[in-house]
Amino acid sequence: MDSVQIIEIKENVLADNGLEAQRIRRQLKEEKTFLLNLMSSPGSGKTTTLLRTIEHLKNDLRIGVMEADIDSAVDAEAIAATSVKSVQLHTGGMCHLDAGMTEQGLQALGTEDLDLAILENVGNLVCPAEFDTGAVQNAMILSVPEGHDKPLKYPLIFTVCDVLLINKIDVLPYFDFDMKKVVEYAHMRNPRLKIFPISAKTGEGLGAWCHWLWEQVDTWQTS
Amino acid sequence: MDSVQIIEIKENVLADNGLEAQRIRRQLKEEKTFLLNLMSSPGSGKTTTLLRTIEHLKNDLRIGVMEADIDSAVDAEAIAATSVKSVQLHTGGMCHLDAGMTEQGLQALGTEDLDLAILENVGNLVCPAEFDTGAVQNAMILSVPEGHDKPLKYPLIFTVCDVLLINKIDVLPYFDFDMKKVVEYAHMRNPRLKIFPISAKTGEGLGAWCHWLWEQVDTWQTS
After folding, report:
1. Which residues pair with B143 in a beta bridge?
2. Which of A72, B101, B121, B203 is 20 to 30 A from A55 (CA-CA)?
């Protein structure tokens, strides 16, 4: 088992989360580090998708990962095994991360030598969507077994995300999941949402997603 | 499309949620109404499981359902089609229900003529676990695609539940889900947790679960 640095993060007492998030983004811009906030339900495949994404991009980008969890370090151990820099953030029961909590993670991770920092947020479609973490872009995973009606039921997260990964497309034959409808519903919430159908298990669709992510990092660093 | 009563519930301002929950349970005991609080991640199959459960029990019990959602009425419409009494609760963005919010739902539903009232809580493994709703028992659904490590990552909800339904066992062949491990992890959190593997899609395991639920209602009404 790989040894993982575990950070017990404290709840933010700042009055203005939005201002703090802007401050984080300015700092990241100076350091040329792109921060991606990755959100989803529990069990949609965040960690497996991250492992695949790291595999695709680790020769081109210096990557660091913050694994936020209420408890346990199972995800951070999986990430640590890839040899990219990682820390485990324990939220002490909190259901989301805000900008101040994210900053504690960024400081523990150390971002000055990173092109891409990824925050794996707490598995939850409700609360994380309400807090700007200071990320440059927000990504969300929805997995096929969860159903195509989720943009109707959890509107905010689809509105605040820049990109949606529809994961577990390898099990499409076994579920009543309507890809056309989910795209229609998601675009109802957010017409600019970029959507990639993927299977983190088989690798299908990962190339297109990783190329897009690489382009976002490149634009952030050079524009 | 069936017409559904939609209740915009307001956040509770009561200082002591626990006291309010006890008050609700005393009232339910007098009315001989059993309240089940059903929790899970988004997309684990709460509504389909409810539809199956209603089908099994509607000849023996007078059932009413409260569908809590941040937005939309798609679940309540599905329940209304079964002809059991139902209301849709809109939480206005709130990620959970507390006792005061549940009581607004119970009043809208009307419980004096019900044996079994079911609250389908907001899809979320974190926040709903923190609030006693006044339910007689708490049930949770974990679905196979979510993975067997969830009791390690979301400890509280497994601790506060009386019964765990492991849903979507029809797709076990397509996922790396270890039934022995999930039972071991869940019992680590809560040795008294009753566990039923089910498939709401095929109906497998539903009989045992519904018989157990019927027994709980009967005990509540007669003891």
Report:
1. B167
2. A72
Per residue in A17-73, pLDDT (tens digit) is 989 999 999 999 999 999 999 999 999 999 999 999 999 999 999 999 999 988 777
Cβ-defined contact of A130 to B93 (cutoff 8 Å): yes
Structural contact between residues A189 and A218, judged by C-beta atoms closer than 8 angstroms: no
Domain A5-10+17-222: give its CATH code.
3.40.50.300
Alpha carbon of B146 to those of A40, A130, A144, B209: distances in Å?
Answer: 11, 23, 11, 21
Report domain extents, chain A.
5-10+17-222
Rounded to the nearest angstrom, the minimum Cα separation between B215 and chain A is: 31
What is the ipTM score, two decimals? Answer: 0.80
User: A70, B153: Cβ pair inside 8 Å?
Assistant: yes
pTM of the prediction?
0.87
pLDDT digits (tens, 9 = 90+) for A71-84: 777 788 888 888 89
With CB atoms and an 8 Å threshold, state whether B72 touches A41.
no
Mutation choice for A interface testing from B90, B146, B156, B177 by most A CBs within 10 A: B146
The two three-digit tokens of residue B158, written as one number: 């497994």
Which of B46, B142, B154 is the mutation pick for testing A, counting most A CBs within 10 A? B154
Least confident of A202-211, B26-35, B69-78, B139-148: B69-78
CATH class of residue range B5-222: alpha beta
Report the first-to-last Cα separation within chain B, whole angstroms. 41
